[in-house]
Amino acid sequence: MIKPDAVKAGNIGNILQMINAAGFRIVAMKYLNISRQQAEKFYEVHAERPFYGELTQFMSSGPIVAAILEKDNAVADFRKLIGATNPAQAEEGTIRKKYAASVGENAVHGSDSDENAAIEGNFFFSGLERF
Ligand code: CMP
């Protein structure tokens, strides 16, 4: 996902360009708003965390871009490309280092396992929307 902060800042194109340059294939993509309830569902694994309210409010505060990306070793390579959750700790050249402002508003989300990538892909896309 490209999160509301990066969409608002006009960085969709820059981020997609980095994703493309890193060798990912975009197999599905959409621009949409999610409701508070949908954000709560997407991040339900974090329901007990102190930042859950802030996170779900933020994720429903404006449009996002959701995409399914394909590549060998995609989960690990995408996490490398986006950098640490907290942009202050992200390496130079990563998406979060370049475009994120804080741990809460950190520009992008990437799945943390193949299993979660499948779950998260199914959250946003039907079978008809993939190719
Ligand atoms: P993401 O990769 O989308 O997965 C969970 C999100 O929770 C994470 O990125 C951060 O944006 C957010 N998050 C993690 N820790 C904190 C925190 N301490 N305060 C606010 N948000 C956080």
UniProtKB/TrEMBL annotation:
* Single GO molecular function: kinase activity
InterPro entries reported for this sequence? NDK-like_dom (IPR034907), NDK-like_dom_sf (IPR036850), Nucleoside_diP_kinase (IPR001564)
> SUPFAM superfamilies in the record, alphabetically?
Nucleoside diphosphate kinase, NDK
User: Which residues carry out catalysis?
Assistant: H109
Q: Which PANTHER family match?
A: NUCLEOSIDE DIPHOSPHATE KINASE, NUCLEOSIDE DIPHOSPHATE KINASE DDB_G0292928-RELATED
Q: Nucleoside diphosphate kinase-like domain location, by residue?
A: 1-129
Protein name (Swiss-Prot/TrEMBL): Nucleoside-diphosphate kinase
Positions binding ATP in this chain are K3, F51, R79, T85, R96, N106
Keyword annotations for this protein?
ATP-binding, Kinase, Nucleotide-binding, Phosphoprotein, Transferase
Q: Does the keyword Phosphoprotein apply?
A: yes
Query: In this record, what's one Pfam family?
Result: NDK
Which protein family is named in the record?
Belongs to the NDK family.
